[in-house]
Amino acid sequence: MTPNARFGRTFVHLLWLVTVATAVSVMGCGGSGQLTAASAAEPSDFVVRSGPGGAPLAGATVQIAGAVLQTDSQGRLASVVPVGAELQIEATGNLPRHTWASNNEVVLWPDTVALPRSDTWDLVYRDAPSQQLTRVEAAQVTLRLSRALAGDAEASSAIAESARRMSEVSGVRYQVGMAAAANGIVFDVDIDPTLQDPVLGHTSVRSRAGVVNGGRVSFRTLAAARRLNTTLHELGHTFGLLGHSADARNVMFASSSDVTEFSPTERSIFAMMRERQPGNRFPDIDAAGPAAASVSLAASLQP
Ligand SMILES: [Zn+2]
């Protein structure tokens, strides 16, 4: 992640307190026992969905406990799916998902023209610690402005407006303030003249096991901090969009631009990130949950 000297650009630099908290096991968690077929008249209510709207997905292929099943026209599986069961799901237009049932539905991450896997990879996984989905879990992010920024009406207005837009797309409340809320984290926001031209901004994100727990946003100049595209871009990094997009329509494009609204693609990525636990890996591999871990342990103890 080096700044692009030709275009002059913001970049994100990552720091993490614990680089690899846990190895993610994606293989070898044993089957979860016998599947019980639901009666044809009364299929189970386990549903496979897709995308931010969670539309039911027909014709998805689900591998579970050695069986291969397909969802019906309502996205339902004609089988009981026990909590903790390991699932491998494939469906056209979606990233293949490897997960463990935690409730009665699974939402797939689309891979479409509107939400191409390249943007998902570039923005969410490529530059993340251990390439794990990393995001804010806290309900609130406080942006603690340095005196220089707080004293500049144009810069503080651009940051406040960016905070408003972040709150709208991320589901996390971003606000300018002095101290963290009880259930919140803090990013310090300041001017750092040691950043080298042409860099406009720089964001450091501290995270642990995919959970963002704070950091620092710096702008090289007051002029950079007054640019809505730049402030919004840097705040995008704070949520967990740790990479850059190759698409100029995105706020997270690798070069500065006049784009000041997150694109539909980026909005979908925010929504899908919220659907995922931190630590998920590309293309869409969840870490095994506690239920699955105990299933695995029980299986390994059998002769
Ligand atoms: Zn950047």
Please give a structural write-up.
This protein is 23% helix and 22% strand. With 303 residues, it is an alpha/beta fold. The strands form three sheets. Strands 1, 9, 10, 11, 12, 13 and 14 form a seven-stranded mixed β-sheet that branches. A hairpin with a 4-residue loop joins strand 2 and strand 3. Helix 3 crosses helix 5. Residues 1-34 and 292-303 have low confidence and may be disordered. The structure holds zinc ion.
Question: Would you spell out the secondary-structure blueprint of this structure?
Answer:
Blueprint: E1 11-14, E2 47-50, E3 55-56, E4 61-64, E5 67-70, E6 86-90, E7 97-100, E8 105-108, H1 117-125, E9 135-136, E10 140-145, H2 147-150, H3 153-170, E11 173-176, E12 184-191, E13 201-208, E14 211-219, H4 222-225, H5 228-239, H6 264-275, H7 290-301
Parallel strand pairs: 1-13, 2-8, 9-14, 10-11, 10-12, 12-14
Antiparallel strand pairs: 2-3, 4-5, 4-6, 6-7, 13-14
Helix pairs in contact: 3-5
Zinc ion (ZN) binds at residues 10-12, 233, 237, 244.
One letter per element, helices H and strands E, the order comes to EEEEEEEEHEEHHEEEEHHHH
Question: What composes the largest sheet?
Answer: 7 strands, mixed
CATH architecture label name of the largest domain: 3-Layer(aba) Sandwich
Bound molecules: zinc ion
Domain unit count: 2
